[in-house]
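Hmm, what's this shape?
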Amino acid sequence: MATVTSTKELRQFNKKRVVEALRNQDACTKTEVAAELGLSFSTVSNICNGLIAENLLLAKESGLNSGGRSPYLLHLNPDGRGTLCLDFTNPNRVGVAFVNLHNRILARETLSFTGLPRSFPELSDLIKLTSTRLLQEIHLSERALLGTGAVIPGVYSNHQRIVTNCTNPWIEGLDLKAILAEIFPYPVVWVENDANLAAIGASLFARTSPTVLFIYIGQGIGLGIVHKGKIFQGARGFAGEIGHIPLGDPTLKCYCGNTGCLEGILSVPGILRRYQKNRGAPSGDLDRKEVKDFLAAVSRGGRMITGLAEEVGLLIGKAASIMANIIDPEAIYVGGELLPFLKLAFPSATAEFARRVLLTEARSISLRLAEATEDLLYAGCAETVFQHWIPE
């Protein structure tokens, strides 16, 4: 929360602190929570009693006493609240998921389609129907939702209130936050870049690492930067837009008008076009069939696939080493789409990364392949909504 200016805001602030304290441990007593947060026992007791009534906390007798009544052990009820997460990273599908307070996925479904057969309003109707059905399946009411989070392959400008620099034409130029707020009138609506949310998700599973980077390779390429659990956005929210760094093929013209952009190779369209060029096939519009055919070729292997994997891996290693030497993180994750191919490319990436990262005698920066990127996106999405949630 921002600066507390009223008694109501103070109660909300303390309530959120109690939930956060219990979210990060297995069980404890009211006395232990009060001591940890520096609050009076009566304040914590009142808050906890309210949270138990709201089904956010569970309580049971500890069995520990010194002749009197046993104190109750308090547990967070992770399924007592949930977040609706929407994945717009791919123009051919939308992911719908509900995630609990421990960032575990309760239910998910992918809505697949080819091209642009519907208007966005029609698509939003389909998302609403799907989310309503999933809620019923997991027996969660809309009143128990903290909010809605959207994962986008671009940037949501809070100043202009539009999605911009986005590789998904469904949502480019839309005020997605306002649209989702109208469809899903939950307490929080948040729209965030895919690489940023993947980095948040990765940081949740690397709690000893205060600075984590995530290189997300999807329809474009982006860098997520997380420091002490917070996304680094930059002055205007465009930090991590690395797609047009001139590390790519200097003969390849980018849609931005320049040549040699990183995204020209390190992206799903870039990798597929490179593959088509190497095999002498025409480079037309890319769809799910091309992705399926490419992954089938990856599973078969062969010299052409191996050579392309080495080329892409070399570029991943170079890009990651630049980020490592500038930012000095504990870990850099690489993930996104085309995971089987990224696995082939990763040995080349780690070798190049090791050659180019300096001061290895004073620090150890690991380059890691994220094998469950979708799960990380949903976890990061739910965590970001939780961070912006203000209890009633």
